[in-house]
Design brief:
mainly alpha; 26 helices; 75% helix; globular
């Protein structure tokens, strides 16, 4: 991202209170500075164009460098934001306290220095801030060494060394657990959920290593970070291999763990968010919609007090799970009403992360398909494809299948056949990563004239569809959207919503 674009995005992300604080910091300098001119031009413009802003700046700040002011303004805004959010996390606050302790020692105020260090150590232990704890312990040991260990016994010194070693062991364990969880999430994100027993075995090596690490430090079981990492790994693994009931139980245990330890909530609480998202996904997989409202409310509560970007991404996730009970049973009219109610999400869609934005546009496109608004669906799908960040993520497979549906509905058969050939070439290169549902969709749409498909072929298709619904691996794709219902709606010439409604009621 260009520096100017980064500056515009940074200013746009500021809340009203943050902008007010920055304006006050500018006013303290008296006459309007060059960087303040640039800030005013960007903040008050509805549509920011670099050339236009540059020209306007040169008129108001004659002879001054636009680029120098731009870089200074960027740094100045960050300084103000840092000062405003300085006490938002325990780690940031303790880091400042360590700097104060160092200054006290340098001025020979030893009593005050060690008093400050002891307070830091106490708070760091309570919040399991091990990196800060280790650094504070090391600083205390160095200062004691510089003063020739005043009023200390050898046992006191041994205790400090022993505690340092325990801190290092805990940091190492937490780091190893975090590395395994990162690998698990990376594989699930970039390779998709497990589709076969062979792929499940490929994840088992991570599971065995994580279990070994967790079991190797029995005395550390009461440490929040270790317990959280273990439960989060187990829940994500079980979700990835399609063990819905076990995964849901693990996620519930995680929620209890977070609720019982609010002091350990991160800022922003990304792990807590991941847990709530996992629970909602599992509730949707099991069609347990009644419990969703409770966890959606917890999502909304979680976003309070955090950045605008975090709030908007959480709001998008909450909106999806508000719409799914209607979406999954084919009530597309109700979905459209909710889309209108939450139209502000679409107005601010560029503030969403690539994944959230893609999910929102994908489900919006499917709602348009359900309503017969195929041109609108095509527009939504094309908007997703502008973002190259999602090209290699598993959701791209679903997006491409939905694009095939749009081509078929719009009778763009040349584009349809071209895209089918493209997808088949991709699947041929990595056949083990394809869902059976993908192959079924490609065979079905690859038929030049679906109306001539024989009754026997229909019977075979229905048999395959039934087998897919009994396959726990295939249900990981079908829970996102039931492509088999769309196939059946084409064969029976029925509205998609009607077929989905029958699926849910068991007719």
């Amino acid at each position: 991202m260009k520096k100017f674009d980064s500056l515009v995005y940074l200013i746009g992300s500021m809340s009203k209170s943050e902008k007010k604080s920055f304006a006050l910091s500018i006013a303290k300098n008296g006459a309007e500075q060059d960087y303040a001119v640039l800030y005013r031009l960007i903040a008050r413009s509805d549509s920011v164009n670099e050339t236009a802003v540059r020209n306007a700046y040169q008129k108001e700040a004659r002879g001054q460098s636009f680029d120098i002011s731009m870089h200074y303004l960027y740094d100045r805004i960050l300084d103000v934001l840092v000062s405003l959010h300085r006490r938002k996390t325990v780690t940031e606050d303790l880091t400042r306290q360590l700097s104060k302790a160092r200054i006290l020692y340098e001025r020979d105020m030893f009593y005050e220095c060690f008093e400050s260090l002891n307070r830091i150590l106490k708070v760091a232990r309570e919040h399991e801030a091990y990196e800060i704890l280790f650094f504070a312990m090391r600083l205390k040991r160095e200062y004691l060494l510089g003063l020739n260990f005043p009023n200390m016994t050898e046992q006191d010194l041994y205790h400090i060394h022993h505690e340092q070693k325990e801190i290092i062991r805990n940091i190492q364990k937490i780091t190893e657990q975090g590395s395994l969880f990162d690998l698990l999430k990376y594989r699930l994100l970039h390779r998709g959920n497990v589709r076969s027993e062979k792929q499940k075995e490929e994840l088992n090596d991570l599971m065995v290593r994580e279990l070994y690490i967790s079991a190797s430090f029995g005395d550390s079981g009461n440490i929040f970070e270790i317990a959280k990492n273990h439960k989060l790994f187990q829940a994500s693994y079980l979700m990835g291999v399609g063990e819905s009931v076990s995964a849901l139980n693990s996620f519930r245990e995680l929620v209890r763990l977070f609720d019982e330890n609010p002091q350990f909530r991160a800022n922003p609480p990304v792990y807590h968010l991941s847990v709530l998202e996992g629970i909602l996904y599992m509730l949707r997989s099991s069609r347990n919609y009644d419990e969703m409202d409770y966890f959606r409310q917890k999502l909304e509560d979680l976003s309070q007090g955090h950045s605008r970007e975090f709030k908007e991404n959480v709001a998008c996730l909450a909106f999806q799970y508000e719409i799914f009970p209607y979406f999954d049973r084919g009530d597309y009219a109700a979905c459209k009403e909710l889309m209108y109610t939450h139209r502000d999400l679409y107005d601010n869609i560029d503030r969403l992360s690539s994944l959230r934005k893609s999910e929102l546009l994908l489900y919006t496109a499917l709602i348009h398909i359900g309503l017969g608004e195929y041109t609108h669906a095509k527009k939504r799908i094309n908007s997703i494809l502008f973002d190259r960040n999602i090209e290699y993520l598993p959701i791209m497979k679903t997006i491409r299948l939905v694009r095939l549906m749009v081509y078929y509905e719009l009778e763009s058969f040349d584009l349809l056949q071209y895209e089918i050939r493209s997808i088949r070439r991709g699947l041929a290169l990595k056949k083990e990563q394809a869902f059976k549902t993908e192959h079924l969709m490609l065979r079905f749409l690859g038929n030049e004239n679906l109306s001539l498909v024989s009754g026997k072929a229909h019977a075979r298709l229905y048999k395959q569809i039934e087998a897919l619904h009994n396959d726990k691996y295939e249900m990981q794709l079908l829970v996102l959207f039931d492509f088999t219902a769309w196939i059946e709606s084409k064969l029976k010439r029925l509205p998609l919503g009607m077929v989905l409604s029958r699926y849910r009621t068991g007719d």
